[in-house]
Write a structure and sequence with these properties.
Elements lengths: L3 E5 L2 H16 L4 E5 L10 H7 L6 E2 L7 H19 L3 E5 L3 H12 L4 E6 L9 H12 L2 E4 L3 H8 L7 E3 L3 H8 L6 H8 L5 E5 L3 H4 L2 H17 L1 E5 L5 H6 L8 E4 L4 H9 L3 E4 L3 H9 L3 E3 L8 H4 L3 E3 L2 H13 L22 H12 L3
Parallel strand pairs: 1-2, 1-4, 2-3, 4-5, 5-6, 6-7, 8-9, 8-11, 9-10, 11-12, 12-13
Helix pairs in contact: 1-7, 1-16, 3-4, 4-5, 8-12, 10-15
Bound molecules: uridine-diphosphate-N-acetylglucosamine.
The site of uridine-diphosphate-N-acetylglucosamine has 18 residues, from α1 and α5.
């Protein structure tokens, strides 16, 4: 049997792939994992493979960082050789990173069907590289595996035939729920010397951190948050230099951490009084953990986290008042995962098996 090939490149891919790979293994599928090397620091990659029980990649292309064209081109060249050599029955891609679009483009030209996990999300903001990646990947995919109901409408509006779209739920939430017993906030607090009550922030979007003036403006707002409560920031390598140059660490109540592994990170999120972020996945994770989330972006491709969750979009100006309001809103959230009936539909921990079922049926197994 020709293998199903998973293409993984960046941190959020690893969290989404773990339940899909394990469900396909349970269904008896032959699989291979190609790590593109888009993320390569041990803290951005290896720790996720270890903690999530992902299989050792069959190959790591070692593509690394670069401009969009440089990185995407290198990804495509490496992936074309791998796909030609392995003749996959199907290529599975995840999310919206450059490794996702590169794999979809290469597979399509080699007439290999593509399954896109997390299809149909739209921010309608074409200045985000992820929006470009999502739109193109969905057009090229034989199977659009959708996490959130509005995705079905977005795909239909773009002319994707309905028989290609499947609402399967959210595999990132499978991973969260499967590890719920392991998130020990006390242990993370102790390991990093964190106070009982804190706000956790992550910021890495190009629009927020790439321009030094914008990063400096953001740092002023984050210091405003730190005036209200201790602020814990695991710093993504992108933006690290600009945020530190703008004096991020020059506040007594700012705690800067290296990027955390999955278990420590979600444990820290679970114990936070509020989260400030521009991440996509964290909007979903806080929704399930019941932690107030302030997303510093003008839009979101995940509006269900606003309607069914704890998420709120804020401008730079609205950030400090928004955090104040969240802190006044009551005790820290996150003591328990949200009850089933309050979660977005199918964010129930069983997306992986649903995805495996659609894929096995597609392959005629
Ligand atoms: C990528 C995704 C983004 C996702 C994010 C999750 C794209 C276009 N963007 O953004 O959607 O939210 O991953 O983390 O694919 N770097 C390191 N070590 C690493 C990886 C990156 O130091 O292991 C640094 C490099 O300086 C690099 C920069 O981070 O130039 C950006 O990395 P890149 O993979 O291009 O994009 P991200 O910002 O990580």
């Amino acid at each position: 049997m020709a293998p199903i090939v998973h293409v993984l490149g960046a941190r959020p891919n690893f969290v989404k792939a773990a339940p899909v790979i394990s469900a396909l293994a349970a269904a008896g599928a032959e699989q291979a994992v190609i790590h593109t090397g888009q993320h390569y620091d041990a803290r951005m990659s290896e720790v996720f493979f270890d903690q999530l029980g992902l299989p050792e990649p069959d190959v790591n292309l070692g593509v690394g960082s670069g401009g969009h064209a440089e990185q995407t081109a290198a990804l495509m060249i490496g992936l074309e050789k791998e796909f030609t050599g392995r003749s996959p029955a199907l290529v599975i891609v995840y999310g919206d990173v450059n490794s996702t679009i590169a794999a979809a483009l290469v597979a399509a030209k080699l007439h290999i069907p593509v399954a896109h996990v997390e299809a149909g999300l739209r921010s309608f903001d074409m200045t985000m590289p992820e929006e470009v990646n999502r739109r193109v990947t969905d057009q090229l995919s034989a199977l659009c595996l959708v996490t959130s109901p509005e995705g079905i409408g977005h795909l239909a509006a773009e002319g994707v035939p309905v028989e290609r779209t499947h609402l399967v739920g959210n595999p990132m939430i499978d991973t969260l729920l499967a590890n719920l017993d392991k998130f020990d906030t006390g242990a993370v607090r102790e390991a990093h010397g964190l106070p009982e009550r804190y706000v956790l922030a992550t910021m890495h979007r190009p629009a927020n951190v790439d321009a030094p003036e914008t990063a400096a403006n953001l740092v002023r707002r984050l210091h405003g948050v730190a005036d209200l409560a201790d602020l814990v920031i695991p710093v993504h390598p992108r933006g690290r230099a600009n945020l530190l140059a703008a004096g991020l660490d020059e506040h007594d109540r700012v705690h800067i951490l290296e990027p955390l592994g999955y278990i420590d990170f979600i444990a820290a999120v679970r114990g936070a009084a509020a989260v400030v972020t521009d991440s996509g996945g964290l909007q979903e994770e806080t929704t399930i953990l019941g932690v107030p989330c302030l997303t510093v972006r003008p839009n979101t491709e995940r509006p269900i986290t606003i309607t069914h969750g704890t998420n709120r979009l804020v401008t730079f100006e609205e950030l400090v008042p928004g955090v104040r309001k969240s802190l006044e809103g009551g005790p820290a959230g996150g003591a328990a995962a949200r009850a089933d009936e309050r979660r977005p539909p199918l964010w129930d921990g069983h997306a992986g098996p649903r995805i495996a079922e659609v894929i096995m049926e597609f392959l005629g197994e």
